[in-house]
Amino acid sequence: MPANALPQGVLSVHALPSDHHDGPWDHIIVPSGTKERLLATALLTMRHGRRLAALPGLPHGLVVMAGPPGTGKTTLGRGVAQAAARALAPQGATTYIEIDPHAFPSEMLGESQRAITRLMTDTIPELAARRPHTVVLVDEVESLAVRRSAASFETNPVDVHRATDALLAGIDSVAEHHPGVLFVTTTNFPAAIDEAFLSRADLVLHVPLPDEVTIAAILRASLRELAGLWPEVRPLAEDAALLGELASRCTGWNGRRVRKLVLAALAQRLDVALDPALLTATDLLAAADVAGAGPALSEAA
């Protein structure tokens, strides 16, 4: 669907599974069990949501992924949509919708509420009717589900309350009338999300900063990818002692920052920048030390 034809707040709409969406699920490295739990929740909702809706305490088809920036929440959200679509392909295709939460705030009193109501009661049900399964990704959901108990008078708390009320009513309506629709949401600031929204979540998944084991795995994968272009660097990817030392120096980093370490190492020396096949363990260790000193310098400033 052309971008200029999309309803307000909808960034994109795709039919899954699609080869264009392969990659994120397999490539992202997170603590053991994270992907399995997320995918299991998605499949349960998408495959059995209609039957489960008959039970007391109906599922809301809502997943909240919370954690620091750069831990892979958005990638996980996009990846689980494709992974679930592939698993459910024998029962039909999946509609994948990305929502822009920043498209709704308005200076006009009540307009945010009306826009969110249209999204939840008109747009999403209409798109969900196209195929048997639907996944809706909402990044930075705290922009929509604002914690009403902490709303500032400077930001028009009346409109904030109304917009959050509209979102909650919409989640309830979709769960009741269109069970099987899965909302996958992400946040860097779970404390900013309304308590009633969190209480509706079937799964609140905390995506933490990677531990040393996960950091080592990310570095190994990154170096193996580099070795696909310059095979000479493959021994670095298989050097367990090196990976362990790098992981210890990268403690507290997010996954995105860890992946960029290899790029930083390639830029340590001009000859390596010209020929990445010359990359050494010393370059990687030096890059880790330089990058590790960066935040400390920023904080001191």
Walk me through what this model shows.
The relative contact order is 0.14. Residues 296-301 have low confidence and may be disordered. 50% of the residues lie in helices and 12% in strands. The chain starts with 9 loop residues before the first strand and ends with a helix. Helix 2 (34-52) packs across helix 3 and helix 7 packs across helix 9 (240-249). The protein has helices at 24-27, 34-52, 73-88, 111-128, 157-177, 195-200, 212-227, 234-237, 240-249, 255-266, 270-274, 281-300, and strands at 10-16, 62-66, 94-99, 133-138, 181-187, 203-206. Helix 5 links the parallel strand 4 and strand 5 (181-187). The chain is an alpha/beta fold and 301 residues long. InterPro entries: AAA+_ATPase, ATPase_AAA_core, P-loop_NTPase, Pch2-like. Residues 59-211 form the AAA+ ATPase domain.
